[in-house]
């Protein structure tokens, strides 16, 4: 988990649009995913594969994680998507995103196909990671097996639009709370995905918010999954990127405090600090569990490239 790169913002880019592909290179998203699935019309898919291979091989993506979303295994397109994209640009690609994953077998099928393509193209076996999108009732009831289906899995992603359709939800505003329902109808789904991701030690990613001009509403939805522990969210529009980067990283204050807890606890447990298992940091009592919580926040902050603005000085007695 600690080795995985930050994915606070995951920018969707339709593979059928060379202008958008070019523009995406300069945007400050942690990850881009070049789409061959639902943002690409069936007639445009063959051309989109070629655009994507060219855009990946041209480079200019900086530090961004480069992912391609292929079509799901129930279509006639998946195998060709994977063969063309990984065969043509595998050296310049990090992950394949598999949508509408129903069970572990679908992940294993992609894993085997990737292994063959990697071997055939002289790539290191296991180079290409897998991002699994959970967007159906069946996918959700199998999410635990899906998370453990392959060592290539790097993220489990919530796909709210398809998911809402799959369970017959009576709302068209993706991810927004509904005035007729008192609670958060998405809480159960988000938590199931988060538990599977954490049990497996991979990232949990929230899906899209379609009202792209309403940034405050995006922020409200993003804060709900960020608060639970999700690592990032899709962004469909450049205007959502800064909000996601901010919401899925700790605040500067929380980050500084987490680093302080780590230093203070390390000192408290040391010989010089008195080999204490619990200690006071200001008015707060800290122990081993505080250290674990602080590691999470510090890890997210470090992955997002944050720097400390304070340091720890051992108390004098
Ligand atoms: C994303 O693919 C979604 O269906 O929400
Ligand atoms: Mg979808």
UniProtKB/TrEMBL annotation:
Pfam families: HpcH_HpaI. The keyword Signal does not apply. Mg(2+) binds at residues 135, 162. Residues 9-238 form the HpcH/HpaI aldolase/citrate lyase domain. Coiled coil: none annotated. Substrate binds at residues 69, 135. One of its GO terms (molecular function) is lyase activity. Its cofactor is Mg(2+). Keywords: Lyase, Magnesium, Metal-binding. One of its GO terms (biological process) is oxaloacetate metabolic process. SUPFAM superfamilies: Phosphoenolpyruvate/pyruvate domain. InterPro entries: Aldolase/citrate-lyase_domain (IPR005000), Citrate_lyase_beta/mcl1/mcl2 (IPR011206), Pyrv/PenolPyrv_kinase-like_dom (IPR015813), Pyrv_kinase-like_dom_sf (IPR040442). PANTHER family: CITRATE LYASE SUBUNIT BETA, LYASE BETA SUBUNIT, PUTATIVE (AFU_ORTHOLOGUE AFUA_4G13030)-RELATED. This is Citrate lyase subunit beta / citryl-CoA lyase.
């Amino acid at each position: 988990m600690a080795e995985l790169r930050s994915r606070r913002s995951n920018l969707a880019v339709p593979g059928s649009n060379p202008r958008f592909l070019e523009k995406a290179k300069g945007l400050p998203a942690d990850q881009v995913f070049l789409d061959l699935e639902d943002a690409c019309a069936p007639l445009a898919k063959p051309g989109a594969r070629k655009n994507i291979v060219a855009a990946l091989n041209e480079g200019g993506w900086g530090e961004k994680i480069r992912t391609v979303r292929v079509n799901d295994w129930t279509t006639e397109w998946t195998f060709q998507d994977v063969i063309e994209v990984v065969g043509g640009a595998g050296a310049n690609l990090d992950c394949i995103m598999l949508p509408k994953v129903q069970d572990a077998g679908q992940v294993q099928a992609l894993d085997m196909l990737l292994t063959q393509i990697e071997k055939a193209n002289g790539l290191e076996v296991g180079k290409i990671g897998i991002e699994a999108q959970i967007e159906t009732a069946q996918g959700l009831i199998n999410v635990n097996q899906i998370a453990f289906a392959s060592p290539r899995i790097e993220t489990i992603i919530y796909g709210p639009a398809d998911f809402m359709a799959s369970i017959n939800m009576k709302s068209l505003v993706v991810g927004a709370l509904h005035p007729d329902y008192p609670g958060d109808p998405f809480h159960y789904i988000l938590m199931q995905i988060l538990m599977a991701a954490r049990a497996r030690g991979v990232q949990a990613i929230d899906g899209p918010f379609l009202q792209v001009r309403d940034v405050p509403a995006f922020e409200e939805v993003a804060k709900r999954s960020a608060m639970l522990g999700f690592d990032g969210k899709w962004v469909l529009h450049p205007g959502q990127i800064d909000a996601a980067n901010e919401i899925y990283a700790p605040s500067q204050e929380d980050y500084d405090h987490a680093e302080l807890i780590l230093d203070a606890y390390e000192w408290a447990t040391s010989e010089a600090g008195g080999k204490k298992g619990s200690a006071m940091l200001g008015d707060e009592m800290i122990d081993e569990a505080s250290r674990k919580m602080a590691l999470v926040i510090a890890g997210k902050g470090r992955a997002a490239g944050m720097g400390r603005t304070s340091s720890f000085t051992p108390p004098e007695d």
